[in-house]
Amino acid sequence: MPLCVYLCYTHGCEQKVERWMLTPDEGRAARIECPRCGEPLRCAWTGSQAPTPNMKDAIASEFRPRS
Description:
Elements: E1 3-7, E2 16-20, H1 24-29, E3 42-47, H2 55-62
Antiparallel strand pairs: 1-2, 1-3
């Protein structure tokens, strides 16, 4: 589930809105109005969540006995 960041480039407003979207394409295609001035926001960034690493596996592989 990607986090999308939308920015308003209207002079004096410069509002930032973050939304979780189902897909990156849905995030880029979304038409969101600025909550402050009402102008359309532009999608500035679409990222995705990285899975949390399993620290048990990471630590076990790091401290293997040397042969």
